[in-house]
Amino acid sequence: MSTNEEPFAPGPGLPVVSPATNLNIGFLQQLLRRHSKGKLWSFHQDGVISNSDENMESPKNPFRNLKPSERAKTGPRKWKSTENSMLNEYFPNAAQVLFVPLWNAANSQWIWGCFCWNSVETRVFTSSIALSSVLGSGSSIMVEHSRHESLISDRQKRHFIGSISHELRSLLHGILAAAKFLSGRNLDEFQGSLLEAINACGRTLLDTMDQVLDFSKIVSLERKSRQLRQNTKQSRLELKDEVSAGFD
Q: Region Disordered: what ranges (predicted)?
């Protein structure tokens, strides 16, 4: 949470004391379910929603102790009243509250909710500008989140391949060595065909594992090379800016 306005901003050296930090997970899940495209609420000074279609009083929350599943059964009108009172509870004295859900495409589920609010009535959020901008920012955040998740997943896969390959290769070498010792025995035609099948399958599997390891190493080297080029380019740009600033 980032803000410079009272009553949300904590004092120097003090922990964050905003009620928003205690936002109920069940309430957030209901908002994600009901407002999947985001929502903007405007309030008067007395805590009443200023929208003409949602103009209702903000009583003390009568559903505060209800479970999320029980709140869902209270009906649309009662839910609006509950929603209004809980928003006033978590964002006291807020003139406007803006909510944007964040969708994780990799897992096909909502995972976070973003809230923006202000306590100055003359600073107006609008759906066409503020809500759209935060929705765009949320999409950018989730793209970056997915990129980091992909990098973590690739790193885990490489670690798994490197860890398991040694064990599997040791077992394969044992199988192939045992098959080689058996080949020196007097075997009939059927036994010889079985031994040839063991040799062929073992060597094919060993070659496949070697190719997988080689591919993993190549991908890792390409990624390191790409990162090195990016760092070199960034360093050159920074050096160019410093030289230009020195001439100025």
A: 51-79
Identify which of 25, 101, 109 has the alpha carbon closest to the alpha carbon of residue 67.
25
Contact 17, 10 (CB under 8 A): yes
The CATH fold assigned to 148-234 is Methane Monooxygenase Hydroxylase; Chain G, domain 1 (1.20.58)
Instruction: Tell me: cis bond preceding 7? Omega within 30 of 0 counts.
Output: yes
pLDDT at 151: 81
pTM of the predicted protein model: 0.53
Q: Please, which pLDDT band fits residue 99 given cuts at 50, 70 and 90?
A: very high
Q: Which region, left, alpha or beta, applies to residue 13 given φ > 0 means left and ψ of -120 to 50 means alpha?
A: left
Identify the DSSP state of 107: T
What is the rounded distance in angstroms from the CA atom of residue 138 to the CA atom of residue 199? 56
Rounded-to-integer distance, Cα 145 and Cα 104, Å: 8
Q: Give the pLDDT confidence of 31-50 residue by residue, as tens digits.
A: 888 888 888 988 876 666 66
Euclidean distance between CA atoms 34 and 40, whole angstroms: 13
Domain range annotation of the chain = 19-125, 148-234
Cβ–Cβ contacts within 10 Å for residue 92, how many? 14
